[in-house]
Structures are given as C-alpha cells and as structure tokens.
Design goal:
Length: 927
C-alpha cells in the first residue's frame, strides 16, 4: 500500500443529521424512509468526485455512551432521541458508504471525533495532508498547518484563522476555552457565568486553563473570581470531556482508506434498491465514463442541427439528466474576447451531439437580399433555420450555471470568454457563467505532460483512432478562407458537433486514467480550479499607459540611431545592422577579428549573441555596441511598439492569454502579448514596467516569493544546513559561502557571497564547471573545486541529484513535491551532451515545477480569501514567482496582508515560505 498523501476524514454523523433536516420526507415502495439516505448519498457522491484525496473514510458514532460518561455520567444526557423516521436509515447510510467502496469506521466506547483525531494524527505523522469534512466546532481543536476542515454544506474552508474567529484563540487553545465556557448541547458543565468571549480573553491573558485556575485569586471581578475558584475542578473535568483522544486503538488501519473504484454491481444494486433513479443514472454514466474501453470503442455518430426552442429544451433536459455535457463554441474570429458567437455545440453521450447555429450568414457577395446597407459582413443575409441568439442563450444560461451538471470543454478558457462576451452583448442578464467545469486539454497535460501535444485533433487520433474534420475542409485556406459564419448549416453541424462529441469522449477516457495513474490530486487541486482563475485574470487585463510606451519607443529609436552612427564610424562604412551576413563580413572579413565560424550550409559568418559577447569580452568595441543596439531593437519591437498595439481600445488594458499546457514543469506561459519575458535586470526593461499602471483610485500590488526554488531544494533534498538557515531567517548565500569557503559567517565579504549565490542558483539548474567558470570569470579548475566543496558542504544535494537522475532514467519523468509529472526526454541518450542536458533538466524540474505548483495554489486560494475579507482586490498577472494584483487605494494595506498570508500558507514545506509585497502606482514602483 502506498503511503497516504491526502486523507479525507468525513464526520458521518454530522452528514446524517444535516441531510435529514435538509430534505422533505421520502419513502421506498416498502415504506422505509430514505430522505437522509438520499441526501447523505448525494453528498458522498459529490465529495468523492470533487476531492483530490487518495485516502477517504467516513467515521460514525457507534452509540450514545462513550468513555466520557465514565468521567461525567450526565455527559450528553439531555440529548433527545433520534427522530423516529431517521433510526431505520442509519444502517442504510452505512450500507451506502460500503456500496461506494469507501472505508466506514465506528467503535464502541469512543465518539467519531476521537477516531477522527486519531486518524488525523496518524496521517500527519506519515507526512500526509488531512481534510476533515465537518462543521463540528469540537473538531476545530485539530486544525493545524497540516489539518484543515471543510464545511460541505456552506462550501467553506475552516483554517486556523476561522478557528480564531469562532473561539477567539488559536486551535491549540480551543479546549481551554471550551472547558471554561462549557457546552449546553453536550451537557459539558464548564464554569457558570463564563461564555466563549470571556473564556478567550482569560486564556489569552493567562496562557492556559491550569495557569488560570492556579491564579484565579488574581481576577479583579469578584463574581468571576469566585466562580473560577469554586468550579475549578468542574472546569478540569470539562477539559477532559472536550479533549479529543488521538491515541485510540482504531479497528481499521489508515492504509485501508485508500480510494478504490466502487464495484459496479454493488453500487448500482444499492441505488436501484433505494429507487434513487436520478442518482442511478448519474453513477451509471460516471462508471461508463471511467471505462477506457468504452471511450475507445467505435461510435456511430448522430449529430443534429437545433432549429427550434423545443428541440433545444430537449437537449438541455438530456444534458441535465446525464450530469456531464461537453460544450464548444464556434466564432467568427480567433480573438476570444472580440469574437462574435456563431453557434454552440453540446454532446451528452459518445456519438450524441448537436449544433445550435445562431449567426450564420450567406457568403459575402452572394446574398439573396441584404438586410441593411453596410459592409459586406454586416449586410450579409442571415441564413434560415437558426434560433434567435438572445432566446437561445436565455435557455442555455441555467444549464451552464447548474452546479449539478459538469460542463467539459477543450481549451475551455476560450469558450468562457466567448460566452461571457455573448451574454453581455446579446442579453440583458450580463455575462454567461459556466460552472462547474473541466478541460480535456488540461486533463491531457496533467496526465502526459509534454510527451505529446494537446490539441484536439492530435488527441483524437492518439486516443480514439479518429481523424477529425479539418477546419480547412469547411472554411478553406489562405486568401480563399471564409469565416465560420459563412459555412452552410449542414457542414457547420458536422464540424462543430464533432468537436463536442470528441471532447466528451476524450473526457471519459482521460478522466478514467486520473485515479489509476495517481494524478487526481494534481488535476483537482491545482490545474482544474486554476482554469476559472486564469479566465478572470485574462478578462481583467492590466492598464497600460500608451503615452509612456510612445515616449520609450521614441527614446529607444533615438538611442538606436546614435548607436548605428557610432557603429558605422567604427566599421569605417555604413551597413545594415539587422543583417547577420553584412555584420559578419564587417567583423571577420574587413576587421579581421579572430574566432569567427562560417555556417556549413550558407557560408555566412555566425554573429549570434554568444559570438558577439565573446568578442566584446575580449575588448572589441563594435560587437559590444551591436549587442546594445540589438537589445534596444528588441525592446522597441517586442515590447514598446507591440504593447501599444495590443491595448484594447474598449478597456485601455492589455489582456494576455495564459497557457497551462506548454511547459515541461507546469509553469504558465503568456502570449498575445507575452508579459512574462519583460526583462527586469536591465534599466531599460524596468522602464517598460513603468507603463503598466493602476486604474484611477487604485494601486498595483506585486507579491513575490523569496528564494522559493532554493527553499524547495532544501525541502526535497532534505538539506539540513539550508533548512536551518531558512528557519533562522539568515542570509542563505552568506551561510553557503561560509560553508564552502571555510569561513565564519562574519568573515564572508561581498565577493565570496556573490560566488556562493552563483553556485546556489547554478546548482538548481545543474551548472557545470565550465558554466560556473564563465559566469564568475574564473578558470575551470577553480570552478570545479567550488562545486566539489559545495557538495562536500551539502552532501544531501548531491544525493538528491543522483537519486533524481536514476528515477528519471527508470520512469522517463520526475515528480514535483505535489505529484506533477515532468517528462525527461533524452535522459537515456547515448550522446553525452544531449544526455547531460536531459539530466540537468530532470534535476531542476521538481524544483521549478514545485515552485510553479505553489504559486498556482496561492492563485487558487487568493480570490476566496480576498472575498472572505470583504476586499475588491483582484489578480491581474502571474510572472513565474510573482503575482500582480490591483487594489482600491483604501484597501491596499488589508489586501497586502491577506495576499502575503495566503501566499505563505499555500504549501507546507520543511522551510518557511516568505512572500515579499510591494505597492505602487506602476508595476515598476510596486516590484
């Protein structure tokens, strides 16, 4: 059995009563009441589907008496008996748990809370994360950095901050407060006259219950002082009653909680016996969806064009019954935010899909009679057989927002933008929202990383042996290409409905692999919830001052012209600086510089950055000035000119697109425009960030993880020296220099620290002696000695590197601390250069990928944390280890604290996470 990584402990008794009171009476044909069974089973299904845990158990109370009644006979004595129609449902609920192949635990003499406390302790000691599914205040004493709680009914997480809000003290002091305040529900006596708030103040002042009772005579209020003295023993008894036992000899080992797929006949038989027809249909569909064989089986497609509202209503009802529907949009252009919605396709089962055309028109120039005068596109005749867009979207809106129906898309962020825009433009009810959702492109990436591409066409051939209809087949190519809005309805239906059908079939296939390949947690806790977060960030965009960019472009152009003149003077003639061929002739043919190499294919001299940097290092002025000219040219063309062109005239903001499925380590990438590669180490690059500004009345907040990759290295390699240095908040580079160079920390000067810093960061990327020598300007022998000394000082790092390379050679991938697979192609190459590159990538991937996973966790948690504190601050950008947010001026301080706390609590490592937060009117001043 694999060790647990994330354990869900469900408070079964709490679920039962909440389910019973939430639903009206229900009975089977034989008269047995089933409302609590139905509600409990529905919640269990939801939890199983949504959790990323690898170990799950439901914990029940065995009976009314426990060891606490031996301590205090009246404990829970006044509790009423369970409702008469609930009693026969208790055994059925336990049967439901077992039918779904979930561990079910109860034990005579102990309450469910004691078993939960025991399993939570065992799980955390095994290194696992624990989530307790309950709203029971008695369980809040267990909350820690590794144990959290979730209230499923309110969809609310309960962390240490929530416990403080409830009790006025942190979790480790909850039992002292409860002992003083007592509990009328459980008949815990406490101290008369003392409530939760008073108890919290007393414990905060005196530290703990025993100290308070010993010093009760110091209490100034006479009545309170007398109560504490008189009822001191009662308070001590109460503390025994409220303290959860975490040392119970539990009847089932934690390893038996490993998540397992339910047996088909057992679970369907149980649901059928209870006459839960809707749940039966959903679970049947889920089990079928989890079957790779079913997903790969040849399918006879039946696609329909929806031309009237009655037909649309039938498809919507079918989607609601299925519980999962694939959704795809067709548009008149590729830009998601500016595209017009042409149609929507739905798929409810393999081979069963429809297309809802909304805005198809006759091809430009071939109209049978224009509706109005104007440009060709605007004047084109609307084709018959289509629904009114506003009416169709009004019908689709409830389905898209239905929490009981999962909407699946392929690159669904695109569809979310299109639907939101269509809702704003075509209806009075604002943007169309889609939730809950999943994405087959993201699913594929989670499972296979960069082993292959994740486009629908490629995945369809790879997994389904199906060749999809090419876009060029329906719209043409090149100059003859038409808009999808001009495609006839029959061809549009075949193409669009197939997209939805393939999406659903891929979902069924890929979703079934998650659990088997132990990738559920990565998908459910990292990538899937991030889709919605990124969609909101893309829609928000970031304000850009076009005037600043214009000034920068002008400045860059003037400086480029000056450099060009100077370079021509150095060369003795004019030539085209942008021409590598002409530059090579000047440098090597005319000036006679040494070290040039000609291409075997073209015969031209090589003039890449590495060649010019080598020549510049040798003291040659012309190549150094060409490097300066190239840098300015790139800044001007790639950033100042391109960013100005990318400003949305409607919002005054730049809206980048974040890609989740490109990099090998899980990092996000940015495009159209790329905002992640703006240089920050040069003065010119920092000037570009001055153009990114806050809206009036707002400020930008930049939050950046400090040395996160070194912290992850310390964690994954268990480097005791680095762990201690981070724990003590000491200068990590000075500590490294002291260890490597045999100095005392106070003897480390700036030069030694700089060398240690180069080694620290270089080691993460598998730097060689050659690379370190070039970076520090020393000979290769000295660089090798530095690296050898480094590994002698930190032997755990060398062990980690060798273990990681061996793992990669065996598996073809490595994993981040959070379970993400990072592919390592070339790890077994015979060519030592190619193999060395792959080995360095394998060493770095868990570290860089771990950093990417941590900031994703922070991004997912931030929106809820900000809303919970009543803040309007919103996320705008993510650039590797940095988040950029925009906050109203009056909430900057509060938002900064929430952001810092959320980022620092995003993961539990063996070293502290530190987030540094800056504020400014521009990105440059905030960073």
């Amino acid at each position: 059995m694999a060790a647990p990584r994330h354990v869900y402990l469900i408070d079964g008794s709490g679920f039962i009563f909440r389910a019973y009171h939430a639903l009206p009476p229900m009975n089977r044909a034989d008269g047995t009441p089933t409302n609590a069974v139905y509600g409990f089973t529905s919640m269990l299904i939801k939890l199983i589907e949504e959790t990323g845990a690898d170990h799950v158990a439901v914990i029940f109370d065995k009976g009314r008496r426990s060891f606490r009644n031996d301590i205090y006979p009246d404990y829970k004595a006044q509790r009423p008996d369970a409702p008469e129609d609930l009693v026969p449902q208790f055994p059925l609920i336990r049967e439901a748990v077992r039918a779904f192949n979930v561990a079910c635990v109860e034990m005579e003499g102990f309450e469910a809370d004691d078993l939960i406390a025991t399993y939570a302790r065992q799980a955390t000691e095994a290194g696992a994360e624990v989530t307790i599914v309950s709203s029971d205040k008695d369980l809040m004493q267990l909350v820690s950095d590794k144990v959290g709680m979730v209230d499923m009914m309110k969809n609310r997480s309960i962390d240490a901050a929530a416990v403080v809000e409830k009790f006025g003290v942190p979790p480790d002091r909850v039992i002292d407060v409860q002992a003083l305040a007592g509990d009328s529900v459980d008949n815990v006596p406490g101290v008369p006259g003392i409530g939760i708030k008073t108890a919290a103040k007393l414990i905060e002042e005196y530290g703990d219950l025993e100290t308070l009772l010993e010093r009760a005579h110091e209490i100034k209020q006479p009545k309170r002082r007398q109560s504490l003295i008189e009822f001191a023993e009662q308070a001590r008894v109460s503390r025994q009653l409220v303290t959860l036992r975490d040392d119970v000899a539990v009847p089932i080992p934690l390893t038996d909680f490993a998540v397992q797929k339910p047996e088909r006949e057992t679970v369907l038989g149980f649901l059928e016996a209870q006459a839960f027809s809707s749940l039966l249909a959903k679970i049947t569909a889920r089990l079928d969806a989890d079957s790779p064989q079913a997903a790969r089986a040849p399918v006879e497609a039946a696609y329909q064009t929806v031309a009237d509202l009655d037909t649309l209503d039938r498809w919507i009802a079918e989607a609601e019954e299925a519980g999962v529907v694939a959704v795809d949009t067709e548009t008149d252009r590729l830009d998601a935010r500016g595209a017009g919605l042409v149609g929507v396709s739905l798929a409810t089962a393999p081979g069963r899909a429809c297309y809802i055309p909304l805005a198809h028109r006759a091809p430009a120039g071939k109209q049978q009679g224009a509706l109005f005068d104007g440009p060709a596109e605007a004047a084109a005749e609307r084709l018959p057989g289509q629904l009114d867009p506003a009416q169709a979207l009004a019908r689709l809106r409830p389905l898209l927002a239905d929490p009981g129906v999962l909407k699946v898309g392929h690159n669904i962020k695109y569809d979310l933008h299109v639907l939101a825009g269509a809702g704003r433009r075509l209806t009075d009810d604002g943007p169309l929202t889609v939730s809950p959702l999943d994405d087959t492109m993201v699913l594929s990436y989670v499972l296979d990383g960069t082993a292959h591409g994740h486009g629908m066409d490629e995945l369809a051939e790879l997994h389904l042996a199906h060749k999809t209809i090419p876009f060029s087949q329906v719209c043409g190519k090149g100059k003859s290409q038409i808009s999808f809005a001009e495609v006839p309805l029959d061809q549009a239906t075949a193409y669009a409905a197939e997209d939805a059908d393939i999406t659903l079939r891929l979902y069924q296939l890929l979703r079934g692999r998650l659990r088997a390949e132990k990738m559920t947690a990565v998908h459910e806790t990292l990538d899937r919830p991030l889709v919605g977060v990124l969609t909101e960030m893309e829609a928000a965009g970031i304000r850009v001052d076009a005037a600043v960019l214009k000034d920068l472009s002008g400045d860059f152009a003037r400086r480029m012209a000056d450099l060009e003149s100077h370079i021509h003077e150095l060369a003795g003639r004019e030539f085209n600086l942008a021409s590598p061929k002409q530059l090579g002739e000047v440098l090597f043919d005319e000036m006679g510089l040494k070290g040039g190499k000609k291409s075997s294919k073209t015969g031209a001299w090589g003039t890449g950055a590495e060649v010019l940097e080598t020549l510049a290092a040798e003291g040659h002025d012309l190549p150094a000035r060409v490097l300066d000219w190239r840098q300015l040219a790139k800044l001007k063309s790639t950033y100042t000119d391109a960013l100005a062109a990318a400003i949305d005239p409607g919002t005054g903001r730049v809206h980048t697109t974040f890609s989740m499925t490109v990099t090998s380590t899980g990092r996000l990438s940015s495009s159209d425009p790329n905002l992640q590669n703006i240089p920050i180490r040069t003065e010119e690059g920092r000037k570009i960030r001055q153009a990114f500004v806050a809206s009036p009345g707002h400020r930008l907040i930049s939050a950046d993880y400090s040395q996160i990759e070194l912290r992850i290295l310390a964690h994954v390699a268990q480097v005791e020296g680095l762990k201690q240095a981070f724990a003590d908040m000491r200068d990590i580079h000075a500590i490294t220099a002291a260890k490597v160079f045999g100095k005392q920390p106070d003897e480390v000067d700036s030069g030694l620290r700089r060398q240690a810093k180069a080694i620290n960061f270089g080691i993460i990327y598998g730097i060689s002696a050659f690379g370190l020598a070039a970076q520090l300007g020393i000979d290769r022998g000295a660089a090798k000695r530095f690296i050898d000394d480094y590994f002698e000082a930190f032997p755990e790092i060398l062990a980690y590197m060798e273990t990681t390379k061996a793992f990669a050679r065996k598996r073809g991938y490595v994993r981040t601390p959070f379970g993400r697979k990072c592919m390592t192609p070339g790890i077994s190459e015979k060519n030592p250069n190619l193999r060395g590159f792959a080995e360095r990538a394998a060493i770095n991937a868990p570290i860089q990928g771990g950093a990417a996973d941590i900031i994703k966790r922070a991004m997912i948690a931030l929106p809820g944390a900000l809303v919970e504190h009543g803040l309007k601050t919103r996320s705008l950008l993510q650039v590797h280890d940095e988040l950029v947010l925009e906050a109203p001026e009056d909430e900057v301080d509060a938002a900064s604290e929430v952001i810092r706390a959320t980022m620092e609590q995003a993961a539990s490592l063996d070293v502290p996470l530190i987030a540094e937060v800056g504020v400014g009117a521009s990105w440059a001043s905030a960073h």
